[in-house]
Amino acid sequence: MHSAVPATREVELQERILHTARGLLFRYGYKTLTMDLLVQELGISKKTLYLHSAGKDTLVREVIERFFLELGRMAEALFGDDELSFTVKLARFTAELSARFQRLPPHFFRDLERFAPAIFRQFEELRSRNIPVIFGRLIAEGQKAGMVRNSVDPEFATAFWQAAIRGVMHPTTADRLGLRPDQVFTQALSLFCGGLLTSKGMQDYENQVAN
User: Fold this and answer.
1) Which of 5, 77, 151, 175 has the most CB atoms around it within 10 Å of its CB?
2) Three-state SS at 168
3) Confidence class of residue 112 from pLDDT cuts 50, 70 and 90?
4) What pLDDT is recorded for position 6?
5) How far is 79 from 138, CA to CA, in rounded Å?
6) What is the pLDDT of residues 140-174, one digit of tens each?
7) How far is CA 107 from CA 16, 20, 81, 117, 181, in A?
8) pTM of the model
9) What is the pLDDT at residue 5?
């Protein structure tokens, strides 16, 4: 019984470190996040921090992996709710994803690309791996509900969305447009839905977003 207590406290500390690192990363970006800042925020010694973490890049990788894991779980729970209509699911998914991106500072992706290119590539790889699953299911449900045009090829539409969002969310493009990550995503999805949905689907979706 007594041996489980230290193990539990260790897990709790590791979770607290990861949670704090996530908050700082999403608030300030990669460059500003330092182990010294983490120590200050956590109120622990640097020795204790390094006993529970291999370093800044390891923490950032874990934060990004968990970000996509939570995104997948959110989408699964939302799309699995049979009581919700397709357009309600689409509107809520848009709002949830926009809210997550809204937490990121405007320079988030630029920082990653410049100072941690390997982690930036990891983010892109995770996005490429998760988006087809989510959007493929979304399009299939929309077609079944009569809200997405049946002439749309789900695989092509998903590949088109991936290429488009990768382009507009690239740091250079986002900087030129002067848009935050959440603004880029919301406008891109609105434009995408305009060609994806039937007239009924678009009207219903706009009503849901307005509410």
Assistant:
1) 175
2) helix
3) very high
4) 64
5) 8
6) 889 999 999 998 888 888 888 888 888 888 888 88
7) 25, 19, 35, 14, 9
8) 0.81
9) 41
- How far are the Cα atoms of 13, 172, 173, 181 from residue 168, in angstroms, in the given order? 38, 9, 6, 9
Tokens of 192: 């995408």
E strands, the chain, where? Answer: none
166 neighbors 124 (Cβ within 8 angstroms): yes
d(C-alpha 135, C-alpha 159), whole Å: 10
How do residues 70-82 score in pLDDT, each as one tens digit?
Answer: 988 998 999 889 8
**Token digits of residue 32:** 């500003």
Q: Structure tokens of 131? A: 């988006």
**3-class DSSP string for 82-126:** CCCCHHHHHHHHHHHHHHHHHCCCCCHHHHHHHHCHHHHHHHHHH
What angle do helix axes 86-102 and 199-210 make, rounded to 10 degrees? 50
- Give the tens place of pLDDT for each residue, 30-39: 999 999 999 9
Contact 182, 121 (CB under 8 A): no
Distance (Å, whole) CA 45 – CA 47:
5
Alpha-carbon span 97 to 91, nearest angstrom? 10
Question: What's the CA gap between 194 and 164, in Å, rounded?
Answer: 14
Rounded CA-CA distance 41/39 in Å is 6
Q: What sign results for the dihedral spanned by CA atoms 136, 140, 146, 152?
A: positive
- Report the C-alpha gap between 19 and 25 in whole angstroms: 10
